[in-house]
Amino acid sequence: xxxxxxxxxGTPLGAQAPALPPLSFLGFEAGASLNAIGxxxxxxxxxxxxxxxxxxxxxxxECRSSVVDPGSRRVVDVWLSAMDxxxxxxxxxxxxxxxxxxxxxxxxxxxxxxxxANVRGPQWMMQWVRQGRMLRLTxxxxxxxxxxxxxxxxxxxxxxxxxxxxxxxxGRTARRPSAGPPPGPTSSx
Length: 189
Known about the structure:
- This protein is of the alpha+beta class.
- It has helices at residues 6-9, 34-43, 98-112, 155-175, and strands at residues 24-25, 28-29, 50-53, 60-68, 75-83, 86-96, 118-120, 123-130, 133-142, 145-154.
- The protein has 4 helices and 10 strands.
- An 8-stranded antiparallel β-sheet has the order 3-4-5-6-10-9-8-7.
- A hairpin with a 2-residue loop joins strand 7 and strand 8 (123-130).
- The protein is globular.
């Protein structure tokens, strides 16, 4: 290989690229098991997860709790949807001061790299994506207060759940009796 191309490859031949840290916030990781989430809730002063079956799909658990952000001492609400005990979507949300929001943002940028903030109407957003997972920091001004949330989404969990739903739906459709043509008139002798 020509020596001119080596700087473009990024890593020397035979060496592996350094492992990137998993997308996480306050110790919560995208795609984590309900057990791991429950342990982190307790570690951050929460009382545990309160989970109910979704009304739309009984296989999905919708869970809530609250924890304390160790940096700001603010209460942070936790919402999640889990499929087969794996978290597909988890959101952490709290009203924050400007300094606290800067703390969340700088902690994420220090860990996962700088990204541009996008604006949609009154809402700002920063997003990191890697290995089928996404972390999104969103904030807006609501009634004069900044409200921020961090969403952790595991695309692999959601895709797996979607494929299972699709297969189950095809199975239900295949088992339904065919309507067929309506019976014709009967002739009487």
